[in-house]
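Data card: per-record layout.
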Amino acid sequence: MHIESINLKNFKSFQDAQMTNIPHFCVIVGANGSGKSTLFSVFEFLRESLVSNVHTALTKLGGSRGFKEIRSRGATGSIDIEIKFREYDNSPLVTYFLSVDEQNGRPVVAREILKYRRGRGGQPWHFLDFSNGEGSAVTNEIENVTDVKELDREQQKLRSPDILAVKGLAQFERFPAVMALGTLIENWHISDFHISRARPEQEAGYAEHLSREGENLSLVTEYLHTRHPTVFKTILEKLTTRIPGITTVDAKTTEEGRVLLRFQDGAFEDPFLARYVSDGTIKMFAYLVLLYDPQPHPLLCVEEPENQLYPNLLVELAEEFRAYAERGGQVFVSSHSPDFLNAVKLEEVYWLVKENGRTKIKRAQDDQQVAAFMAEGDQMGYLWKEGFFEGAGPQ
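The structure for this 395-residue chain is written out next.
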């Protein structure tokens, strides 16, 4: 999956913001409070809306005030999100548009559109078009249609106007375009890894994918070790390259039914429990587990991965993120580390600027001064640290 652009209207501090020409590996920088986490919450909102409904999603993000808390302060009208993406690089450009408004004090899906542009020119084809719980969706397989007149549309009514049509119709194979989008949104992943959550012993259980905060790391380790030994071997090889001295990692279940994460240092006969291993070792291992998932997420959003990592590991971590993107996924990373930024390219960086409570998104490549310095051999982190990212310098 490759998101090419994001347009936001009235979503928290993004009253009117556009992010265009987004690369497969994208790094977001900005001052504290500029909106880095808010940008990631857009993806959280869409996924939660798909799993439940927009009312629940707004409540989770904005508390009891819901819609009024999420809508930009002082703004009127709907909250609008538009994402343009391709499922694969050679796939048609897909536009998903969602407009959420209030009716009688309750949030509703005012408009939801899914459209495809098959070629470079011409009007896009609408595969889904719903308002307030009613609309139509196309039942054709996309690849089998060459003329818009051949599209078969089916009228549908949802049980509630706060439910996404994508959620309702993605359950049925006769709506293949909608089903594909629903699968993509459902498998987005936000990572905000916390060392303190990953260290403690876990109750015995089962987990295939690393959770947002990483508290199930030992369970995922056990799963990979037993079910995907080849993948686990790759992770260990990567870890021993990044963290010299570490030779083995495993998960052991105790008689009391708790799972212990253990690291083996080649200099010692017995393995160390996770609580005795450095923060950097655990965090690098966790990111490798995330990045080499046997069923990779189409989109990863990673918040400030540099915390608890040695600066010399950040270049290698950036390389791992980029490699994940090159294998077919997409990675968004928020960062405030000059060392991490020194490992990224000009076209991979965007910065956020907050003016009068409103966040704007700028692309480093579009700044002539930054582009000129980079062309002369400067590094991105040093330029950011010296204040060349106007309005987004480190604090």
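Known properties of this structure: The mean pLDDT is 87. The chain has two domains: 2-188, 190-297+309-329.

See the next section for split statistics.
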